[in-house]
Amino acid sequence: MTSGLFISFEGGDGAGKTTQLNRLADWIGQETGREVVRTREPGGTDVGQTLRQVLLHGSDLDPRTEALLFAADRAHHVASLIRPALERGAVVLTDRYLDSSVAYQAGGRALPPQEIEHLSLWATERLLPDLTVLLDLDPRHLAARIGDQPDRLERAGGDFHRRTRQAFLDRAAAAPQRWLVVDAAGERDEIAAVVRRRALALLEARA
Ligand code: TYD
Question: Whose CA, among 20, 53, 62, 173, lies 20 to 30 Å from 193?
């Protein structure tokens, strides 16, 4: 059992996850005075930084190798950073987590979704977020939002990103108590307010 609160942000590349994560982190810190840990996948740890380099900027990987490396990053991330923080009572906000693997490696790369989910559940000893915020964005907006040097995943193509988006939406629909789906094309302040409201309800329920 953990006493902290674990929130993940998910969505397509360039959907504004990092901005919204930072806004929520600042707000929780100011309002509650609790320790807030901001992190991300891949690359939330030193080991993860090495894996991130291989995953995003290395040579081509076959889908199973890619899935295993994301899972390895996640296993180390949970064991060395997320779980200890939750056990201290911190609020942990992560930019991407397990659902990205199901969306990208299963939805995008077409590996079996249950196998990908089981791999991550094994890697994390079944640690799931209390809340997952999906910043849903039509991949048509992708080109405008990514930089001029796209990484391996950003280069994967329109069909890949449409499947990824659909996989996120399907997972959210299947477990609405864990998910909050927001339209990433909406106004930033409004998105931040909706996310805050849901997080506040969770914080109050735990108080
Ligand atoms: P990143 O540069 O962190 O960008 P952003 O999260 O803002 O899109 O890129 C991480 C990339 O890795 C992104 O394209 C999604 C992908 N990814 C997976 O394919 N599987 C995973 O399990 C995770 C965590 C990320």
Answer: 173
> SS in 3 state form for 113-134?
HHHHHHHHHHHCCCCCCCEEEE
**Ligand 1 centroid to residue 109 C-alpha, Å:** 13
If phi > 0 it is left, if psi is from -120 to 50 it is alpha, else beta; for residue 178 that is alpha
- Angstrom distance (rounded) from CA 72 to CA 83: 15
Q: Is 70 in the pocket of ligand 1 (CB under 6 A)?
A: yes
Answer whether 104 contacts ligand 1 (Cβ < 6 A). Answer: yes
**Which range marks the domain in which residue 30 is found?**
5-206
- Ligand 1 center to residue 173 CA distance, Å? 21
Give the CATH number, domain containing residue 123: 3.40.50.300
Distance 101 CA to ligand 1 centre (A): 9
Q: Global pTM?
A: 0.96
**pLDDT per position in the chain (207 positions), as tens?**
458 999 999 998 888 999 999 999 999 999 999 999 999 999 999 999 999 999 999 999 999 999 999 999 999 999 999 999 999 999 999 999 999 999 999 999 999 999 999 999 999 999 999 999 999 999 888 767 677 788 888 888 889 999 999 999 999 999 999 999 999 999 999 999 999 999 999 999 987
Nearest CA to ligand 1 atom 8: 13
The Cα–Cα gap between 135 and 112 comes to 24
* Number of domains comprising the chain: 1
Residue 153 alpha carbon, nearest atom of ligand 1: 14
